[in-house]
Design brief:
The structure is a homodimer.
Chain A (H helix, E strand, L loop, with lengths): L14 E2 L5 E6 L6 E5 L2 E5 L1 E2 L4 E5 L6 E9 L2 E3 L7 E2 L6 E6 L16 E9 L4 E9 L13 E5 L8 H4 L3 H10 L7 E5 L14 H27 L9 E6 L1 H11 L7 E5 L25 E7 L5 H13 L5 E5 L5 H11 L9
Chain lengths: ~350, ~350
């Protein structure tokens, strides 16, 4: 009996060189122009050889995980030679990992690993079948008495519930932080972040959809996901053991849901937050000078080159005008997981400190 | 604060019409020729409109889930308008779901759902970081006394450990079968099916790699995955509660590992099996007329139009020549998940019957 087919793979792409340069290749003999779109190399025109293979080599890149795609005569194309993708509901890209020191938070280390659990349920609020992902830390034992604090971690617009693990590498980051004693052992719940099932579909008025999304998302989280988590996992009771944070749309959701439910969440984070209603103040009706004493942490961060940077400054100004004082971090970077992996690595160690 | 960006999505693709016809669309104004490659519609030439949008509408398709891609002047392209992909390490495709009656095994029903768990570990055998996926059935409670039989379910060449759940919809199929009382409640373990980490990479002699793969895969399963599963889940002891099955390469692995370890597995399935060594008989040295009494089920199936059909007949002939009599099913269809979802739905109900 002959061997099953082994796919011929003549093109090596991406090729990461020892010095951090990366060569991207695509076979497209008929194309007129092929560009590489990479997070640090935008719109680089690739060169075609006599085999019809287009290529481009970058300067040395800092160790990180970069999203990229090819633009073939106007068509967005992922790299057919590369199985590492950045999955997304609207725009799938390829990814290249430029490896770095094992001390980088997203590098896989030889440490105990947590487990990812995917739960499926029918949402009455959103009228759809959906899922949520749960990270249990190394050593988690459902039959033991030990209970854990929980972080609800929300993805951005056009992501799904797997984004924080598959692209954000939240499980790897937590494994590393916990192994180094830099973060408390915690459960992380990554729900689907849409309150309305049509939010990622086309048509309709975007602003209307965003407002409906934010309102309903809170319902799916508080009334549907949290009860299932409380029932299925060894969760510590009380707001002091409960955190909520998210990126972009998930940042707005975390701030709106968290600050309006301080009886449920004492630790709140917004990473590059966006997607509020036009009347920002109306979404935070209860903020006042007593709010500072009600949360343990209100952590807000945004990249200097993020298109939402100005809006995050507006948010900080609003909070301060109400007598609320977040911990504010402005970092280098844009609106991407390059920034958000670092935010999670900076935020998680702050959580649940001082809580028995 | 303005709304976060909502992506413009002018192209609707695929569009499934009420009668089962499907329209595929791709915007590629500069392309000379665009073909649709779909499992039932091969190499259909698409037509371009004056907006540069290529389209093709099929005849009515039977309810199913079909893989497809576009060929744009020789370049393999997934559908940029469609988030439903068929992930694979060598060849990512798009998928279209033509919905059918809720009685179809892969349709999501309003029934209790199991949970998918993803475990990460360092393999000493394969010298890599890898994972395995575990399905626990509805009602599974790690703190209760009830123990479950286990099916080890193996993917094919170029798939990864998520293929049986994300493409094969094994969790949906099991949820449905269990809800209807057609299959016993069971745990399903879906490991990474490569014994050698370079099996999916390029270079080297394919046959050599396949043989090393098969030998080492058994070690990863028996010595690494199974002990972790036994420790982490409520698994019933003994061979009568332990099954192994797989598709294509995973079918070969199931037959070789299963039939050479009848002390561990009493239920064995090979779906469209391939990837044996050239000397087929050498991989089954212990088969004899007593073997039939040692397994509870040896279930072998292959599609009539599968390129491995001839080899599966050779396999059956070999087994019969040794006095071993598998349950042999020859079905319509090719080498694809359209066939394998049906095989799982036919195979799972046979498992663990008569076992207390």
């Amino acid at each position: 009996m002959s061997a099953a087919p082994v796919f011929a793979q003549s093109i090596i792409s991406p090729e990461v060189h020892p010095d951090g340069r990366v060569t991207f290749r695509l076979k497209a003999p008929e194309a007129k122009e092929v560009q590489l779109h990479c997070q640090t190399v935008k719109g680089a025109v690739m060169q075609k050889d006599d085999q019809g293979i287009w290529s481009f080599t970058t300067d040395p890149l800092e160790p990180d995980i970069y999203a990229y795609s090819f633009n073939v005569d106007g068509l967005h194309v992922i790299d057919p030679s590369n199985p590492l993708i950045k999955y997304n509901l609207r725009n799938i890209d390829s990814q290249v990992h430029v490896p770095g020191p094992k001390s980088l938070p997203w590098e896989i280390n030889d440490v105990p690993h947590g487990v990812l659990h995917q739960h499926f349920y029918k949402s009455a609020v959103a009228s759809d079948e959906r899922n949520f992902v749960v990270y249990t830390p190394p050593g988690y034992d459902p039959t033991a008495r030990k209970r854990y604090p929980v972080l609800y971690l929300l993805h951005g617009s056009s992501d799904d519930s797997t984004a924080w693990s598959s692209v954000g590498l939240a499980n790897v980051i937590l494994d590393n932080l916990i192994a180094r004693g830099q973060a408390k052992s915690m459960i992380v719940v990554m729900p689907l972040g849409y309150g309305a099932s049509d939010i990622v579909k086309s048509g309709g008025d975007p602003k209307d959809r965003w407002v409906r999304n934010l309102d309903s998302f809170g319902e799916t989280l508080l009334n549907e996901v949290m009860p299932q988590v409380d029932k299925s996992y060894k969760i510590k009771n009380g707001r002091d053991a409960c955190a909520i944070a998210g990126l972009s749309m998930g940042g707005a959701e975390s701030l709106v849901v968290g600050l309006n439910h301080l009886d449920r969440f004492a630790w709140i984070g917004g990473f590059s937050s966006g997607g509020f209603s036009t009347n920002l103040a109306s979404q935070f009706p209860t903020l006042n000078e007593k709010t500072d004493r009600q949360f343990r942490l209100l952590w807000i961060a945004c990249g200097k080159d993020d298109f939402l940077n100005r809006q995050n400054h507006d948010l900080i100004d609003l909070f301060k005008s109400k007598g609320v004082h977040p911990t504010w971090t402005e970092s280098p970077g844009e609106h991407s997981f390059i920034v958000w992996r670092r935010y999670l690595a900076a935020f998680a160690p702050l959580l649940f400190q001082g809580v028995k």
